[in-house]
Every structure is written in structure tokens, then in C-alpha cells.
Amino acid sequence: MKSDGPTQPAKVEDGRYTDKDGNPTYHVTEGGKKVDWPTMSGYLRYNSNCIVCHGPDGAGSTYAPSLVDALKTDDFSTFSGIVAGGKKDVSSSQNLVMPAFADNKNVMCYLTDIYTYLRGRSDGVIGRGRPAEHEPKSESFKKAENECMG
Fold first, then answer.
1. Within 10 Å of residue 113's Cβ, how many Cβ atoms?
2. 108-141, pLDDT tens digit by residue?
3. Is residue 55 part of a domain?
């Protein structure tokens, strides 16, 4: 389970930030106006792959739950497992099914990025809409992206 409130990065390596437990996190500066590149990448990838079901800014829809709310309790491991393996919540009042994305490189190559974006939204440090500014994409990010996407 994740802690409450904004997370301060404990470590940065090649433009990626992690918390004290080694989980991916965001880096927001300039009063919430500027985000790190992985968080910006997460915003872009979320809007390419997740918005259709989970709604704008991770706020949820009538079709799928709010990821902003889910990340108040779900850690990176839980989030990753659900995205990769899918999830089914079936009861007499609902039939919610999320497909598995383990074979989708457009999701899996950017999974930590999507998580950092949603974590920042969940912690309340990243507002709705496109972040105004972002750090540049690092060379190591470009290399990892090329290797993952093939």
C-alpha cells in the first residue's frame, strides 16, 4: 500500500525518479507547472491508450473506474499486475473487465511512465490537462524506448 500525500523523489537516475522504496515517482517543479520527462511521457501514453475507458486525466468514466482514486491504495506492483494481466470484477450489479496489455508494447514499454503520471494525479500535484512544461527527454530514455519498441 502506498503512503498518503505527495511523494518526494529519493533518487534520480538517467532522468527517472524513484521514491525511498525504489518505486517510480514523479518530479514536479515550478509550482506544479513543470514535470519530468517520464511523467510527460506517461501523460501522452495514457491519452493514447487508457483514456478511452478510464476517462480524461484518469478520473474514471461510466465504463471504467478512476485510476486517480485507485492509486491512492494501489502500489506500482499492483498497478503493473493489473495492466499486464487484466482484471475482472463481476457481480450481480456490475460486469467490469479490463483486458490484459502484456503483449502491447505501446503500454508495457511505457508502464512506469503511465504510473508516474497517474501517481502525480492521485497525489494531487499534477492538475487536469496537459502539463505546461516538461524536462527534456534524456538520451538513456530514448535508447531504452528504442530497445523496448524494437
1. 25
2. 999 999 999 999 999 999 999 999 999 999 999 9
3. yes
Nearest partner of 118 among 45, 53, 63, judged by Cα: 45
Indicate the Cα dihedral angle 45, 134, 146, 17, nearest 10°. Answer: -90
Q: Kindly give the interhelix angle for 76-85 and 111-122, rounded to the nearest 10 degrees.
A: 130
Number of structural domains the chain divides into: 1
Cβ atoms within 10 Å, residue 66: 18
Answer whether residue 129 is part of any domain: yes
- Give the mean pLDDT of 64-92: 92
CA distance 127 to 93: 32
- pLDDT tens-digit readout, 46-67: 999 999 999 999 999 988 999 9
Helices and strands in the chain, H and E counts: 7, 8
Query: The domain spanning residue 36 has which CATH number?
Result: 1.10.760.10
The count of C-alpha atoms lying within 13 angstroms of the C-alpha of 77, restricted to the half-sphere facing its C-beta, is 4
Residues spanned by the domain of 133: 11-138
